[in-house]
Model the fold of this input.
Amino acid sequence: MRRVLIVSASSAQRRIFAIQLRRARYEVMEAASVADALRLCQRSEPDMILSDWSFPGQDGLESGLDLCRAFRAGERRNYGYFVLLTSAQDHQDIARGLEAGADDFLAKPVAQQELLARLAAGERILRVEEDLRASNAQLRSALDKLRDTQAAIDRDLTEARKLQQGLVKQRSGRFGQIQLSLLLRPAGHIGGDLVGFFPIGPERVGIYALDVSGHGVTAALLTAQLSVHLSGSADQNVALRAAQTGTDAVSPAALAHFFNNMMLEEMATDTYYTMIYADLDHTTGRLRMVQAGHPHPVLQRADGTVLPLGNGGMPIGVFENPIFDEIDVIMKPGDRLLICSDGITEATNPAGRLLGDDGVEAILRTNAFLGGHVFLESMAWSVSEYCRGERQDDMSAVLIEYLAPAETVPMPLR
Done:
């Protein structure tokens, strides 16, 4: 039942309205002044107010407007519908009433049928407001639940990031004159890039760089599985299983075909990945690599010459009979080779231009005096600056450096 407050200095007018409204099943309250009306509004919130425009004998001739302003300024749980009663309506009065917060106007004398029709219209507005308020409450509740769920997901992803970073157990390694340095920088909480290395024997080391399509949970799960297959444990590492070749570690090309068959036969997924796997003899500097859709490795000779290597090859997990590119190169003292993911080569500036192979070459030349992790961090900073901080893809890299032997500097004789 809607509660209506009748505010009028005329007791006869209040009585007539009260009879009509009670017959129409409204709960009725009466007030003879603005002050009484405001006290009733504070004690029991009316749904609708029917108020005279002016109250003769009281301060001010437009107390109905004052009541309307005070009613709108007060705190309420629900919206209240306000109708002003006027003796004669003109455009200026209506404008002033609307500015004060009135919803409707009735010209006196008021016919019962018109009064009830106006209040019925007010009820429709109140019902719409109540429905909106209920919907907003449900939305707020749903948003609170979504925020709680998102917070839980963020916590899980943060922990997953720590676990994924743990897949790269060593960020650097030294094998004779060869120094290895790794960079792994996901674009989000977790990513689809993986880099690492493992010893094959006393003279050789396996080096890998993978980039799974996408950089969400699916990509992260696949990189976790691949890390098991490329771990340092001989019984799990498919490159070290003697059963594959009988006596020696799997060749780079054979490893790429093994992974391709595994993706097509064992995994029901549309995910694929690119890869470079290298078998490095650190005593001779010979590097045998397979390129499977990964960006070109870049060799920088000791004299500063920069040489992109490979023809590309096909990604892993797409074709039944893929063609992979095999690369055989001899590194010499002072040389270094950079393997990076497309999160670096395909980094885009605000104008939409890719960093590309030319950009990677420029970074190598600019940072020729830097080595190891210092170089990789400088490269990562350059890529972020190129993107203006809007990096969309994971960033990973392997830097292989053939260190020149230290020179002996003779001490001057005194």
